[in-house]
Every structure is written in C-alpha cells, then in structure tokens.
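Input chain follows. Return structure tokens only.
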Amino acid sequence: MDLPKILKQYNELCEDNDWQVFHTPKNLASAMCVSSAKILEHYQWITEEESLSLARLPNSRDKIEAGIAETFFHLLALANRSGIDLEQAVLKKALKDAEDHQGAPDA
C-alpha cells in the first residue's frame, strides 16, 4: 500500500472541494467514528456466522468496502494533520503489543 500516494490523492480531492478548513483533528476523528459506525450498522443484529459471510455478498461487500475505505481516509488524514507517521505508529504499536504479550498464554 502506497500511503503517500493515497494521501496525495485524498488531499487533492479535499483541495478541489475546499474541505481543508473543516479537516481539523477533532472533525477528522469524529468523521472516522461516524464512518466506522456505518460499517458496524451492516453487522448489527446478525449472527456471528452471518457476519463472517456478509462481505461475500456483492451488495453488502460494496457497502462495507466503501465504509472501510472512507474510515481509512479519515484515519490517514487525521494522522497526517496531527503530524503522525501512520506507518511508523503502526509498527511501533505492533512491537509494543508483542513485548506486552510475550509469554502470555494463547487465547
């Protein structure tokens, strides 16, 4: 995944639509929560088994895929706007989790 390329395209879209003024960390965090809630809406009130196969249904898959992408755009923009290198943050968190759970019993 080419994060700089994705961020560049997203920033161009925002500039073309004059959205930058609204893209504060607070607004981006809020937008990320709202878009992730839209994903959750597809899984509400279905069984665990149904949830595992939902993304295989074409109509549902398109909506879930779009919601995941939208949430990711907001996350990437929030990290960028906050001066956080998302790739480095993820790697750092993965290392911390590995250290924290080293020797823990398997789940």
